[in-house]
Amino acid sequence: MSHKGNVYVIDDDPTIRDSLDFLLGSANFDVTLFDRAADFLDSHSGLGFGCVVSDVRMPGIDGMDLLRRLKAHASPLPVIIMTGHGDIPLAVEAMKLGAIDFVEKPFEDERLIGMIEAALEQGPDQTKGDSISAEIVSRIATLSQRERQVMDGLVAGLSNKLIAREHNISPRTIEVYRANVMTKMQAHNLSELIRLALRAGILRA
């Protein structure tokens, strides 16, 4: 059986590297491991098209620096950032810098595999059509004023509790508004909502 595509894993934790090597190898990806972002950057110009899966917090060049350097070199490689719990604001910033998605540790194996498959399907010449952006703007237009406030808080990296405090309403009510926002925006998770906000110009890259 042929490989699904290349995956480049960057993480300073050997346990995480070994775990992802096994998981993604079992899913029929061709996996290359790097323990430092610097090592990846030294060799990435000679690598074939593939998906980069990088930790965000690493010594030396961290995930954010990696994104900045890849962006400066107009790299076509899609990047998925792995974050720890509570790193949502950092994940938002990562997506502004060009990451196509982020996943919180611990993550579901199938979710990460699905993200990688979607990234590889886009190919090196991903395009962003105006018609898609217009569709996203039309979804935003269906939000009520309160739902828009909640959406703005979510894509800014605020927790339900902080959004509730800012607008003087209960966290439980925020949960209801949040569910409405996700439904109307047709977003399955927070990272997808952030991508939509970027495409619509709510968040500036």
TrEMBL record:
It comes from the Bacteria. NCBIfam families: PRK09390.1. The keyword Transcription applies. Residues 136-201 form the HTH luxR-type domain. Transmembrane segments: none annotated. Residues 6-120 form the Response regulatory domain. One of its GO terms (molecular function) is DNA binding. CDD domains: LuxR_C_like (cd06170), REC_FixJ (cd17537). It comes from Nitrobacter winogradskyi (strain ATCC 25391 / DSM 10237 / CIP 104748 / NCIMB 11846 / Nb-255). This is Two component transcriptional regulator, LuxR family. Keywords: DNA-binding, Phosphoprotein, Transcription, Transcription regulation, Two-component regulatory system. Coiled coil: none annotated. One of its GO terms (biological process) is regulation of DNA-templated transcription. The modification 4-aspartylphosphate is found at residue 55.
